[in-house]
Design goal:
Helix content is 10%, strand content 57%. By secondary structure, the protein is mainly beta. The chain has a domain of 39 residues. It is built from two helices and five strands.
């Protein structure tokens, strides 16, 4: 089963219209600053009714120390349990100039 078929309703909801034109050029960069975005011990249940699939994530932890428009480096951590005994962990180190991504991922018990 492909990921797109599992989350097809979300993809449809957040996809741009097929006839949407690209935005204007020569627009200045958007200035943004995200600092200490943390989620501890969250639980998520996603029910995709058309295909009768319930996907559960529990003990989710997320940490984004900083993401800003003027600093190309950022880090991200995400871990959670899923199903009955599955564990997922990912750590990202990103540098947008030049684009460099260090991706570390662990999956345990993918059933």
């Amino acid at each position: 089963m492909a990921i797109t078929s599992i989350f097809d309703d979300l993809v449809k909801r957040f996809s741009p219209p097929a006839n949407q034109q690209p935005g204007p050029k020569n627009v200045p960069d958007t200035h943004y600053y995200l600092n200490n975005i943390i989620i501890n011990n969250a639980n998520i249940t996603y029910n995709n009714i058309p295909i009768h699939n319930v996907f559960r994530i529990h003990k989710l932890n997320f940490n984004l120390p900083e993401l800003t428009w003027d600093k190309p480096e950022s880090k991200l951590h995400l871990d959670f349990n899923y199903g009955t005994g599955g564990f997922f962990n990912v750590d990202l180190d990103v540098n947008r100039k030049p684009l460099t991504i260090i991706f570390r991922c662990w999956l345990i018990n993918m059933t």
